[in-house]
């Protein structure tokens, strides 16, 4: 029995590198909402596919937005 | 002189009309300090993600300005003393 071929996960490309955005704005909640779960948690890099630098920038922007009550710290869905 | 971006959350009980004049009054310290205010953008009433000082809404305003670091520090201090200001944030958009 031949082993099934290992799954090749599609390589995700960092959204910000693709769009050539240098600065992640903490005021842009519509964009930042793509990077948080429905519980309000920041999505991991393996989920978002961001590069190291941009994942960091996104995380900082989300934390800034949370301070100004633009995004929730926690949201009790369920 | 540096460029700054200041975000202010104001008390929702203040009237929408009085927001602009009261912001101008807060910003006199910038002009006195030799700085200039480029843009004042009032977002208006917006729901807060969580309650601040038992309020579930706030009036958001974004102010772009150029000033000396000490002037901005003083502006931030004065804003935090105001009863009608719920929260402030000073950012330097060019530092990134």
Automatic annotation (TrEMBL), chain A:
One Gene Ontology MF term: structural constituent of ribosome
GO BP terms: translation
Cellular component, GO, one term: cytosolic small ribosomal subunit
Keyword set, alphabetical order: Ribonucleoprotein, Ribosomal protein, RNA-binding, rRNA-binding
Function: Binds as a heterodimer with protein bS6 to the central domain of the 16S rRNA, where it helps stabilize the platform of the 30S subunit.
Quaternary assembly: Part of the 30S ribosomal subunit. Forms a tight heterodimer with protein bS6.
Family assignment from sequence similarity: Belongs to the bacterial ribosomal protein bS18 family.
PANTHER family registered for this protein in UniProt: 30S RIBOSOMAL PROTEIN S18 (PTHR13479), SMALL RIBOSOMAL SUBUNIT PROTEIN BS18M (PTHR13479:SF40)
UniProt xrefs under NCBIfam families: S18 (TIGR00165)
Record's protein name: Small ribosomal subunit protein bS18
Gene transcribed to yield this protein: rpsR1
TrEMBL record, chain B:
Key words of the record: Ribonucleoprotein, Ribosomal protein, RNA-binding, rRNA-binding
GO cellular component, one term: ribosome
InterPro entries per record: Ribosomal_bS6, Ribosomal_bS6_CS, Ribosomal_bS6_sf, Ribosomal_S6_plastid/chlpt, Transl_elong_EF1B/ribsomal_bS6
Pfam families xrefs: Ribosomal_S6 (PF01250)
Gene3D superfamilies recorded: 3.30.70.60
CDD domains: bS6
Cross-referenced NCBIfam families: S6
Record-linked PANTHER family: MITOCHONDRIAL 28S RIBOSOMAL PROTEIN S6, SMALL RIBOSOMAL SUBUNIT PROTEIN BS6M
Protein family: Belongs to the bacterial ribosomal protein bS6 family.
Function text: Binds together with bS18 to 16S ribosomal RNA.
Annotated protein name in UniProt: Small ribosomal subunit protein bS6
Protein encoded by which gene: rpsF
């Amino acid at each position: 029995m031949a082993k099934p071929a290992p799954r090749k996960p599609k390589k995700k490309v960092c959204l910000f590198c693709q769009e050539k955005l240098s600065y992640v704005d903490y005021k842009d909640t519509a964009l930042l909402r793509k990077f948080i779960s429905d519980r309000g948690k920041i999505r991991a890099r393996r989920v978002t596919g961001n590069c190291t630098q941009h994942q960091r920038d996104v995380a900082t922007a989300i934390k800034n937005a949370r301070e100004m009550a633009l995004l929730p710290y926690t949201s009790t869905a369920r | 002189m540096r460029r700054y971006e200041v975000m202010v959350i104001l008390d929702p009980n203040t009237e929408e009309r009085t927001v602009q004049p009261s912001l101008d009054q807060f910003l006199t310290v910038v002009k006195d300090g030799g700085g200039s205010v480029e843009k004042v953008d009032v977002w208006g009433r917006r729901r807060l993600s969580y309650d601040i000082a038992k309020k579930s809404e706030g009036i958001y305003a974004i102010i772009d300005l150029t000033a000396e670091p000490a002037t901005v520090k003083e502006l931030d201090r004065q804003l935090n003393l105001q009863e009608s200001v719920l929260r402030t944030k000073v950012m330097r958009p060019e530092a990134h």
